[in-house]
Amino acid sequence: MRVIDIIQLNEFAQGDFVMPEIDIIGPTDPETAAINKQNALLLLRLDPDSKAMAEVHKLLSQYQKNSGNDGLQPQAQQPVAEPQAQQPATQQPATQQPVAQQVQPAEIPPQQELPEPEEDETDEFGNPISEGKKAQDIGSRVAGLDENDPEQAELLAKIEAILESKKIEPVIASIVNKKFTFHLDQIIETFKNAIISVKVSIQEKVKFLTSCKVGFFDMNSIKTAPTGNLYSGIPGAIFEAIKGPLFQIEFGTGGNKIGKGEALLAIIGKGAFKGEKGDIQLSSGEEIEVKASSGDKNPTGAVLVALGKGTDETGKKSKESAYGSNTEAGKKFKVLIAKAYSTRTKPIKPEQVPNSVSGQSIANFFNPFIIRVPARAQLTANAFVEAYKVIFKKEAHNDEFFSGIYSAFSEDGIDTNQLTKVIRAMEFDYYKSVIKHDAILFMNGSTGTYRYVDSGSSLYDQLSTSKKGANLYSTGIIDFTGSYGNGFGKIFTL
């Protein structure tokens, strides 16, 4: 166990680093110390950070002062200006520990040597080269520590702990700051906790974070490959550890909301950012709405309902929901159905009409009435159209918008599958017109499977009404008594 496994993340101050009291550092055997040395040198390359380097510098200077060890000076480089003067002769150099025989630069593996940067440049992460030179200087001193010496092995453990805890956060912050404009602290904290908790080598963490800076895949590619898996090609235990926490991030309300799946996609996707109109904005300019299901065993369905959003007829944003009331629509629907199905001898009251339109209510209530009197098929379709005109306020004047409903009705009754697909496609187009996005990305957060849909007709072609053998399916049609979201049919991604 390394020291970072013992020091809990919340023991580190948010501002300047505060080294907690540690009674047990952890193993300081030569093998562990050698790993700590490698990790420290890798982290020094990752992202020069003055605070982290200052803490390491203090540790090195303190050790030098306490041990009288002058062998920790930078080798073949200019030393960093230290607050402590060089050790006086009274430090009894004759009593120095065997550690005085330091590892020379020739003994350091080539991959641990830090390249000399040129003047007036930035490193690959855009950091000032001056910080890089300080990192080189400290790296030379760290490389000179002897992992076979118990005191220096303990020093290596502390240095590795400081660098891992302090230097990973700035890298994560730089990734998040490029992708988001709000809720930064929450995203950084979640990302950092997940990364530090993973029990893998620093080499893997450095490689993963470097890839995050670029992106693992081009998000713009989903437009030409509308089905696939977003997680393919992202290997390793690190992604498995961060996938769940980042996918589950949900913060805020309204325009400042980050929904499920959005943070993860922005972080792992190249050319993906938190959008203004949609959930994700592509570098090409498109605004993508994300509808995410979590888990393939108990998936959570996505509902095409815009709560508290919308525009009026002039295109001006409205504070009211873009959708009318399910209950209001249900009252009209029930009155029309009761009138269509009543006879002089057997009148039907509105309260006898089912609140929920589903496969079961179609089979047990609606279809028996239609089959007995085929003319009721047209009247039933009319009732659906009038109900959805109440729900879809913005399109109420456009009869063509609702024309697809009629394709699900015949003298044999209602085709449940057809009606489900037609209404989902109609909801899609309405939702798109309200939110003003370009497409919807349906994804499963557990498996990474996705569907990119940019029109109601495209959704109609791809949508199944059965879970069996499908990775995009819908259940239910509408519950007129349901609240927003709960009353509408859901779309699942497997």
Task: Record the SSE blueprint.
Layout: H1 3-6, H2 30-46, H3 50-67, H4 129-143, H5 150-179, H6 184-197, H7 202-214, E1 217-218, E2 227-229, H8 237-247, H9 262-268, E3 269-270, E4 272-274, E5 280-282, E6 287-293, H10 326-341, E7 356-357, H11 359-372, H12 376-391, E8 409-410, E9 413-414, H13 416-435, E10 439-444, E11 449-453, H14 456-462, E12 472-479, E13 488-493
Helix pairs in contact: 2-4, 2-5, 2-7, 3-4, 3-5, 5-6, 5-7, 6-8, 10-12, 13-14
What does this structure look like?
This protein has 494 residues and is of the alpha+beta class. It folds into three domains: 3-78 and 100-168, no CATH class; 196-285, no CATH class; 326-438 and 454-493, no CATH class. It is 41% helix and 10% strand. It has helices spanning 3-6, 30-46, 50-67, 129-143, 150-179, 184-197, 202-214, 237-247, 262-268, 326-341, 359-372, 376-391, 416-435, 456-462; strands at 217-218, 227-229, 269-270, 272-274, 280-282, 287-293, 356-357, 409-410, 413-414, 439-444, 449-453, 472-479, 488-493. The strands form four sheets. It has a six-stranded mixed sheet with strand order 2-11-10-6-5-4, with helices on both faces. The protein has a three-stranded antiparallel sheet with strand order 7-12-13. A hairpin with a 2-residue loop joins strand 8 and strand 9. Helix 2 runs antiparallel to helix 4 and helix 2 (30-46) packs parallel to helix 5 (150-179). The chain is elongated and about 110 Å long. Mean pLDDT is 76; it is low at 1-25, 75-121 and 307-312.
